[in-house]
């Protein structure tokens, strides 16, 4: 199992992940879309990445906003696995057209 990361380690790694924040025992990011269906399409692509990585984010959908929160549940906080998943999601978002996504 991976070890829990210190806050300073998480902060340093998040410098390369635009819009991701360390909040409590999670890292998270919200994505804003022009319409509901664009957000749902994005969630579907995130699910494909999560299955490939065998690590799954918590996903909150509120109309045109999709928020992803990631932690290693078995460890109760943020590990290297979580940062790797965030990086894979960012790579997917950059390489596949995400219509009208506004990173915030």
Describe this structure in words.
This protein is 40% helix and 22% strand. The chain has a single domain, classed as Transcriptional coactivator/pterin dehydratase (Gyrase A, domain 2, 2-Layer Sandwich). The protein is an alpha+beta fold and 104 residues long. The protein has helices at residues 7-14, 36-53, 80-95; strands spanning 21-23, 26-32, 58-62, 65-70, 102-103. It contains 3 helices and 5 strands; from the N terminus they run αββαββαβ. Helix 2 packs across helix 3 (80-95). The protein is globular. The mean pLDDT is 92.
Keywords:
single chain, 104 residues, alpha+beta, Gyrase A, domain 2, five-stranded antiparallel β-sheet, 5 strands, 22% strand, globular
Summarize the structure.
With 104 residues, this protein is an alpha+beta fold. It has three helices and five strands.
Helix percentage range:
40-55%
What number is the mean pLDDT? 92
Radius of gyration: 13 Å
The count of strands amounts to 5
The CATH homologous superfamily is termed Transcriptional coactivator/pterin dehydratase
Instruction: Briefly note the CATH topology name.
Output: Gyrase A, domain 2
Strand % is 15-25%
- The CATH architecture is 2-Layer Sandwich
Structural class by secondary-structure content: alpha+beta
**Major sheet attributes:** 5 strands, antiparallel
Give me the strand/helix succession: HEEHEEHE
Distance between the termini: 31 Å
Individual helix count: 3
Spans where pLDDT lies below 50 across 5 or more residues: none
